[in-house]
Write the structure tokens for this entry.
Amino acid sequence: KNEVEQSPQNLTAQEGEFITINCSYSVGISALHWLQQHPGGGIVSLFMLSSGKKKHGRLIATINIQEKHSSLHITASHPRDSAVYICAPRPGSQGNLIFGKGTKLSVKP
Amino acid sequence: SAVISQKPSRDICQRGTSLTIQCQVDSQVTMMFWYRQQPGQSLTLIATANQGSEATYESGFVIDKFPISRPNLTFSTLTVSNMSPEDSSIYLCSVSATGSTGELFFGEGSRLTVL
């Protein structure tokens, strides 16, 4: 069983739709990162969470440490949001990140 | 914040050759991380590079295949040696912010294709 499971693996949405990407993990963690990978391969860090909820523009990330689950939401999705979104928990306090396989999002105009 | 310049952005290489990837950061950082992302797979940590000491390699990665240099606090290189088609991947360098933010910064990635 993978330590990090993301769902869905692929997601196609119409512009303007509300998007939710889920991440479940099986180990105790100190923090969790959400990353965005562009088609060229470059990666941008979106959020780092250790509890609760964070919001940045149209992006919202939540985490429930007890349930070992995090979600990334995109409101009013736009074609420029098309990318792969990767969940990356950090086990323990100093462990190296473990990475989900990513969710490929395609937003159609 | 940190801005990372990584090059080459992509390359096509012949089997048996070696390629060195460079990673330049616009600020001094203690640790730099090198990742590999094989097609359709998640990122895998190759090694952690600290300035002034040998890199720490993860299980399954060895120095002879992936030698790393870290001559100063803003620069590192990863060499992929004696390449085979299985080495075709995206290679990324990364740093984390100092202090408590823990924010991550990544290079743009180097997409290698080995023929």
About this structure: The first strand of chain A starts at residue 4 and ends at 7. The mean pLDDT of chain A is 93. Chain A has no helices and ten strands.
